[in-house]
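Please fill in the sequence for the structure shown.

STRUCTURE ENCODING:
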């Protein structure tokens, strides 16, 4: 199966925004390389449509998953309780660290969508967040 993706470069640790089309194995290899370095940011979509875009940002043992339904609407996957709701966790968003409320943080190992655990599904549980106020 082919996917279109852009991700943090393992060499520079900077987000490389140029999309590439490849088999899922190449994306999985990049993800695993980034996991071994402790953090990364990945955007992935179908090669047949511009949206939805699934975004995975992770640092150490924490991950945040976004679903961009279109250019105006983004949702966050509800967290798994790994981080208390009043706590913030920093994850890379492109090239910057962003603080995300614990309500939307997942344990990176078990819910990354590329490793063990239940696969992510567009039907939820997602919470719609306006793009401008996504990170506080």
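FILLED IN BY: designer on duty
SEQUENCE:
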């Amino acid at each position: 199966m082919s996917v279109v993706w852009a991700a943090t470069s393992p060499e520079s640790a900077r987000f490389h925004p140029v999309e590439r089309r490849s088999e899922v194995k190449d994306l999985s290899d990049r993800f695993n390389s980034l996991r071994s370095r402790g953090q990364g940011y990945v955007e992935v979509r179908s090669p047949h449509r511009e949206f939805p875009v699934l975004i995975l940002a992770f640092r150490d043992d924490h991950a945040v998953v976004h679903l961009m339904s279109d250019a105006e609407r983004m949702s966050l996957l509800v967290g798994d309780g790994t981080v208390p709701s009043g706590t913030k966790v920093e994850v890379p968003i492109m090239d910057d660290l962003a603080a995300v409320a614990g309500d939307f943080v997942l344990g990176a190992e078990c819910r990354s969508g590329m490793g063990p655990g239940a696969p992510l599904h567009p039907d939820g549980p997602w919470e719609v967040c306006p793009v401008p106020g996504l990170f506080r």
